[in-house]
Amino acid sequence: MVELSEQLKTIQEKLQILLRQQQVLQKENQKLKKDLEKILSEKDQKEVQLQGLAEQIQTVKLGTANWSSTEKALMEKRIDGYLKDIEKCLLLLNT
């Protein structure tokens, strides 16, 4: 009987240790989830910032490119086409 009582006591102590470890692990898990959420949020912000910088680089490249006269003429035609389309849209809106 004494032996059984000791075994039960040992099992109970081990169970208490396991429960404390589980609580510690749950707290650590919650902290890690919060950290992950924060890192993902920062990552999203960095991606948006990177996209903006990429657009700025593209704009600078377009503005400082050494275009040949043919490239300039083609770009002017495209811009003129866009302007004509915009004017058509404005006319349709005004009617």
Account of the protein in words:
The chain is mostly helical and about 100 residues long. It has 2 domains: about 1-65; about 65-95. It has 2 helices and no strands. It has helices at about 1-65, 70-95. The radius of gyration is 34 Å and the shape is rod-shaped. It starts with a helix and ends with a helix. The model has no long low-confidence stretch (mean pLDDT about 90).
What is the strand and helix layout of this fold?
Elements: H1 2-64, H2 69-94
Key traits:
single chain; 2 domains; 95 residues; 2 helices; 94% helix; mainly alpha; rod-shaped
Order of helices and strands: HH
The number of domains:
2
Strand content: under 5%
- Determine the structural class based on helices, strands and strand pairing: mainly alpha
Q: Return Rg in Å.
A: 34 Å
Main beta-sheet strand count, sense and barrel state: none
Let me know the number of strands.
0
Task: Estimate percent helicity.
Answer: over 70%
> What is the approximate shape?
rod-shaped
